[in-house]
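Do me a favour: review this protein, sequence plus structure tokens, and tell me how the chain folds. Record follows.
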Amino acid sequence: MRLRRWGLLAVAVLALHAQAQDCPPAPAPSAEAVARASEQPRDRGFLWRLRKDGRTSWLYGTIHLGRLEWVFPGPRVSNALRASDVVAFELDFSDTALVQRLQDGLGAAARDPAAPVLPDDLAERLRRQLRAACAPLELQQALPPEMLAATLTLMAARRDGLDAGYAIDPALAQLARREGKEVVSLETPEQQIGLLRSESAAELRESLDKMLGDLERGRVRPLLRRVATAWEQGRAAELSGYRRWCECARTPQERKALTALLDDRNGPMAERIDALHAGGKTVFAAVGSLHMFGLKALPALMAARGYEVTRVELQR
């Protein structure tokens, strides 16, 4: 399953195309439900303390979907954010100009005459998945097929009570802005859109066939539930072994895509975080949790840059 490539982009698409809802449409939470969810927030995910040059920064591993109660960070995560000068995300979806750039870029990618053409059989399978999710068929013209399939993948999790609308990254961005923090993006919309573009007709076919096949055979929801549960319960060992059980690194193309998604992006993000810290600012960097585990993950890269890196155990 290729959700990992486009998790945050799919969050944005779900926000931009709010009519694309699961069957039945998920109701908006009532004021009472929000009040109950926010009464006793608890920490979830993964937190690391970074110390260098007498200053403390933070890495926080997020997830790009969730439940209503997950958007309220617990005390340790909230305190780390509030103690930081800068709050950094892969992309800051509270930035309206950035969201517009993303929307424009996705539209341009969908209309790109140089893009590989989606074969008729895959186009029909994609339409069937749109109908099953009660999503408007017009999205097939508005979005690149890879982005659309990834969005449908996230939408499947709604049947298990997991929704991209409850991803913690945008909630943390709103909290940071309310606290008057400087909020920055570690990447650009153009960089993330580039991750989803297939380089050839063969790559497009393999990518779409895999994602649609996972949806058709019911493989998506169990995987998303496992990832979400591991994140909620702080099961670091399970997520660190993700590549062994995700069934997403079996072919050369899948391994290439996973390397581009995780390893290749971690270096530039670590460089950006380091530059902010070295400039005299403390940083709270909230990035997808799969960027936090492995020899080329962000904690390891920050340690290689001379930081004292300590995993903070969260009370759950």
